[in-house]
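Progress against Task 2.4 (sequence-to-structure conversion) is shown through the following example record, which the project officer requested during the mid-term review.
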Amino acid sequence: MENNWIGLQLPEWKHIGRYLIWGSGRVTFSLWLFGLNSIKSTLKVGIVLTEMTERSTHHLLSVYGQLPHMGILREHAIDVTATSINSDPSDIIIDLVKALEGKHSLIIGDTGTGKSSIAQWISYQVGGEVKIYDPDAAPDDWNGLTVIGRRGNFAAIADAMAADLVELQRRIEVRGELGDRALAGLDSVLIAEEFPLLRDEIPVAVEWLTKHARRGRKPKRMIIALAQDDQVKTLGIEGEGGVRKNFRMVRLGKFAVSHAKSLKNNHLIEWLKAGKYRCMVDDEPCQLPDISSFRMVLPRLQPVQDTAAGKTAETPTESALQPVVTNSDRDMEAVAKAVKACLEAGLMSETKVIKEILGYQGARYQEGKVLLMSLKQEYGF
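Structure tokens generated for the chain above:
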């Protein structure tokens, strides 16, 4: 069989210099990138070691603070257990939203412990569409948000939950075809008030919870379920370990203390009882923000919607937010008080205030910025 040879044009000797220069440059860049990666890895290790050393130093200081002062014995013996995680503020969760990132939430607490307010605050921090399923909602509950099921209309809730499952599947398909960019800006927060009641009255409720728990995160569908009992059986997910792992349990009041007792951590129990706005997020202590001033600005954010009678809920859009129009100094003073409360409580950045309270979006953002500056100067905050 005859061989077929392919001719290969080799570079002439006079061009060899060019190839050597190019090769030298390539090697130089490779060595430079290798050096940068090595430095980056070294710095990461250094940061981790520094943080570990800092935590250890805090713990040692807790013990050192109990040692005799200048040779004078203190009244009590040194309590080595004071070095536990709960005596070190650096180990207490102070950013609840960050702690819940990537997880759905189960908020557990008795009536009056602030479950609804916390859920409302979390949903606002996440942003996007917010929808509440609450058959017992009073007219002044959930101000400014879409509420489905008022006056005990469980049929409206069942229809909406079934529609949620259809929407979840649609988003999964869209994301699979077009990627995450297709869902940009479409974050949704679904709040189920007293979920055990919904579970008993609505056949699709458990399916709604479990499917969103397993698959809702990437399609940007976040679930917040509220209950007065932290038993998984009450929530209808007993035996569903995979579902439970997708939730973080936020325990309030006596449920937080009871859970701390189950962990046999007396210091944690004392910490929970010693201050306000303290809870447990799974097995970790958490200091909640003071959200008492948060509710005063909620009616400005979105139009109140009520779908208890089977009305179709409209999704709030940016176009629904119009710039603040005031007819008197009194109105402007009320706006200024709301803005001041949000900024001082750390509930919003100035950008969020301009866009979502003052209502200046897009091309009008600069006008809102000027208005905010004038409010700060005139009202002194």
